[in-house]
Amino acid sequence: MIDMQRLNRGYSHCAGVWKTMMILPFLCLANVFAQSGADVHLENSVLQLIWRGGKNGYQLQSLALKDGAGGKKQLTMATQQRTILYAKHKPLDKSATVYDYDGKLIHFPDSQYRYVIPIWSQSLSPVSLNTAGEVLHYQPTIVASASPSGLRFQYENKKIALSEEWNLDPDHTHDIRVQMTLKAKQSGYYSLSSPSLAIGDRKQFQWAVIPGLFQGAALNPDFVDAYAYGHGIPDRPVIVRERTASTLAALLTTQSGVTLATVAEPGTARDPWLHDTKTHADWKLGLSLMNRNNELTPTLYHPVLGEAGSYLNEGQEITFSFRYTIQQTSWYNVLGHVIKDVYKFSNFLKLKETNRSLTDRLYAMYDYVLADSTSKWRTVNDRNTVIGAQDYLGGVYGSAKDAMKNSDYGAMWMLARLTGDTTLKQQRLPAALNFKLQQQQREPGFFYGSAAGQYYLYRSQQFTEEWGPYSEPIGTSYYMLMDIGNILLFEPDRSDLKQALRKAADWLLSTMHPDGHWEVAYDNKSGRPMFEDLSDLRPTFYGLLVAHQLLKDEKYRDGAIKAANWFVEHAAKKGWFLGVCGDTRFAPDFATAQSIQALLDMYTLTKDPRYQAAAYQVTKYYTTSIYTHPIPSREIKRVNGTARQDWEISQAGLGFEHGGIMGSANHHGPILLSSHAGLFVRLYAKTKDSLLLDMARAAAWGRDAFVDANTGVASYYWDAMNKGAGPFPHHAWWQLGWITDYLLSEATVRSNGKISFPSGFITPKVGPHRSYGFDKGRIFGRSVDLKMKKGLISLDNAQIDYILATNSDAKELYIVLLNNSVDQQEIRLRVDKGQSRRLFGSEQREAFLINANGENEIGMSASSGWKITLPATGLKVMKINYQ
Length: 883
Prior knowledge:
The chain starts with a helix and ends with a strand. The strands form 9 sheets. It has a 10-stranded mixed β-sheet. It has an 8-stranded antiparallel β-sheet with strand order 32-35-36-38-39-44-41-42. Strands 5, 6, 11, 15, 18, 19 and 20 form a 7-stranded antiparallel β-sheet that branches. The chain has 21 helices and 44 strands. Helix 9 packs antiparallel against helix 10 (about 420-440).
């Protein structure tokens, strides 16, 4: 221990020297320490760190976590604690040769994956593989301290002069804030590495994760499986980019249950839109789960060797600020601390304003999908049957720019039911239904009953898959069972649909292996399995659940249970998932969120708590697919000539199509299609995990900068900003679906379940949102039908959304008002007199304003307009009775 009297005498002496000689008191104080030969401590009520001085400098000897009862849990110290990377010349950008664990050259991916090849090659650079540069190991030789909660280390050699300031965070007792400053004494490229504190046993640890890239409870020697798919942790000290790191931290939970996280301070990493152009791919922060010595410990690098800011002329300085958090708790709890307390995620909701409500977008997209010109609706003849779908202008295997696709059948039938629109009911839906029936394989043989492909090519008159001549079992779950299942909810007496459903379910059951898993895909010509290096870590089992729910055949229930059990063991428990986008060779994607709802539906079916527990666990994993950085602000930026505040174009709150090393988020950033939002709201109601609610609202609220003004359709990818549907006109249906799902979920949660509507099956492919309107719901005990009536309601405040429902027997109109802001809002609600009269063929009699508990706040006279106040994130209902 330090002799404090001697320390104070030394400090007083230094203060005098400082006045006369202008020498830093810290340096003088360090000499006091050096003379004393004492250990150096950082300590508070929960943490104790002890460094010991020796002939080579100061080495961390002990890191202990106090238990509050006088006990301490000692962590295992790193052997090589401090590292700087240096290169005289810029490291090469070209990819290195890599070998598998058997010493064989790795060839990945196949040549047709043109979207994946460039970013995979980039991820094999010497910097990414952490083989670039000269390793400078060091130990500070002097140390100074003004209090037990702060230390300053210093070190100097021929190349660098380095200082480290360590301070215990007074607001978060488990956190240590560190700032490193390096001054170059020789010109060259430099990268600061966060010092290694504790390490985990490489053979035995509970969990490790770089959010958005890797997660797992073991090192995986299969380099492609770990590095490309995030299945476990790569067994080498790779350094990844921040562009797909959803939260800027690396986390390790040791076998003893202590979680150590190394977290970049806000402002360290790249800003994806710095001033007036996309800077998403800039690389300022490197993240790793190992140090250069291959020890398992969360490690950050800044600047990245060879990247902007890493070259220093003699005399120039760079600074790196980060923190450690060390807690006896799960990785998820520590991640939540980082997101909430360091990156202030919930504060984003305070900035959100909107000029266009979600409800307004729904009605605008109703117009969009109705018009043939904007929706790119096309009908063609296939085998003497008129089929209809929307043009798909992206790349499809074998297409000559003639691909057609329908996306969200549940949303299509829902919109027709809610609006009663004759064009939808008489023209669109029949042609779309024919498309669905023609999509099923009818030729005898191996594929009989399965889905023939997502897309139809009208020139060659054939169905096909997006990225090759193969068929996936999950494609049959999607495009036969889930789509047809949703249609049957609205048209339950269609025997032709039930027959098609049974054929599809039988095919899916026949291709399931005895242990409950499926192949990823089969070659269309030979029927042989493909992608045998991958496992079908996707909710393929859900198709059998749909079949059982509608056909009541126990064999489908038994099959769903067997397959769901396999998924729980091999995917949910391990945190290993596979995606459904063939163009990225099935990189994990939004199908992970889809599996959450699938597992919850299995729990509803069986009451087996394992499914609910697995769903909650996968939910925690999926939060790492949501960006939480940079911290949004009101800084003015320019986007295609338009001034935007930073928060308007923020990535924070948006999820990946797919992240990781290979996903589209590397190029395009996240997506605006937030199918998970409603699910996260519903899960908040069950778990009271506020992070889920904040994430749902951050995704949904105030995204005007990405919405096409004319159509109400949001762009798919973040970097497209407000270009609308672009080559994906069918995406509007998914947007109709997820926004409706979100609004109804909010209404249910805010009313404590007193407003609720039966939900349908999950939609294919983009996530877990569901359809509504096929059956009556309830509002405060009253049976109602969900409705959409364009022009009936007008509001003067875009932060208020609304849901319409009617009780025809009692002649009641319900307007459910949702305040989608964190501030109290006032609105003027107006009802169009003519439309109001046509609802029930009579005039209004009286009106009531009802609060979220179902209590009448005030009775009102019949009118065409009312002024209403809604509490922050609150709900009220206007009930209008008719004569």
